[in-house]
Fold this sequence. Notes:
Layout: H1 7-10, H2 15-23, E1 30-37, E2 41-42, H3 53-68, E3 78-81, H4 90-99, E4 108-111, H5 117-130, E5 136-144, H6 145-148, H7 159-163, H8 174-184, H9 189-208, E6 219-224, E7 230-235, H10 247-250, E8 272-282, H11 283-289, E9 295-304, H12 313-325, E10 334-337, H13 342-352, H14 365-368, H15 375-390, E11 394-401, E12 405-413
Parallel strand pairs: 3-4, 3-5, 10-11
Antiparallel strand pairs: 1-8, 1-9, 2-8, 5-8, 6-7, 9-12, 11-12
Helix pairs in contact: 3-4, 5-15, 8-13, 12-13
Amino acid sequence: MERLSNLSSQLQPNKVSNVAKLAEKHPDDVVITAAYRTPLTKGGKGGLKDTTSADLLLHLLRGVLDRTKLDPKLIQDIVVGNVLNQGAGASEHRAACLAAGIPYTVPFQALNRQCSSGLMAVNDIANKITAGQIDIGIGAGVESMSLNYGPKSAAGFSETLKQDKEAAKCLIPMGFTSENVAKMYNISREDQDKFAASSYQKAEKAQAAGLFDEEIIPITTQVLDADDNAKTVTVTADDGVRKGVTAESLSKLRPAFSKEGSTHAGNASQVSDGAGAVVLMRRSVAEKLGQPILAKYVHCKVVGVPPEVMGIGPGVAIPELLKDLGLTVDDVDIFELNEAFASQVVQSLRAAGIPEEKVNPKGGAIAFGHPLGATGARQFATLLPELKRTGKKVAVTSMCIGTGMGAASLIIAE
């Protein structure tokens, strides 16, 4: 079986040939047959604020099974990324799988690599297919930031860790790492607000045009009012997208972390609730089952960077990913890059030489939210319909990762 680790050595020097080589179809290819997400809603006040992560996952998985008509008994593994639940939600998310109608014979794995957890879940399933361990799996991610988000605890940090110069940097709050990136790489407030405004404007336009509808599975849930009375609501759309945002309007917001800073509520990702799920199969099995093949999952790369400037991760991971495959930025049609902070996105684009017009065509996390464990899976749900709509083929997903890492993956649409 051809392994992805050996792929780059088999590619031709000509980059066009490399794309063609990567796009070749083989029976053992890892392919994506479905990718969906829930709506992303505002933490603490949005439509999913009272919905647990397990219930988010439950409803999403039910929706995936309904839309794909996949026999749940054929699934051979499910991996779910999560950041904030105790133990990454190992017990309650296994229970959600069972409640969704997936038999107990299907194993479950909880995974936490911070903001890349959803992507790591997808990649874990892909690796198991590549290794011949399974033929069908689901990689997902979920987060209820409304119910679980709070100040980072230092309880697990001994005095030995706190006194170690490098180890102690893992306790730096994410907002301060954004300020560090802006200062170290000379990212101006104006450039950050300009990028953030563009994200809002693209998301507003995409939502109005119904471009998110195909990827979203509506969630019917219970919401508590001010008197703790429950009412049933059906959430069908992202509720964090603001209308009419401009760089000028953002320029009036106060910095969130220091008086002299440039990071604020309008140019950072929104605290959100949501989930995403990706169904992956061996090509030969997908064809046998008559499942639609949306894209070939090609490769994933994870790198480490200094914790105090963790946001630079995509600017390191993306070039390493492309280097592995013998590709350049010019070969990629769309970059779906998580917008943790505008500062780190702007820096990452500059570092990797990525034109902004190729990035997040429907907006990103600044505009509609970043449920930590869900984002890496959510990106595929957002990306695949856009590739289909525009007739584009090669795409990269990427994100920075808390404590100093970056991750990136590449897919080729079919």
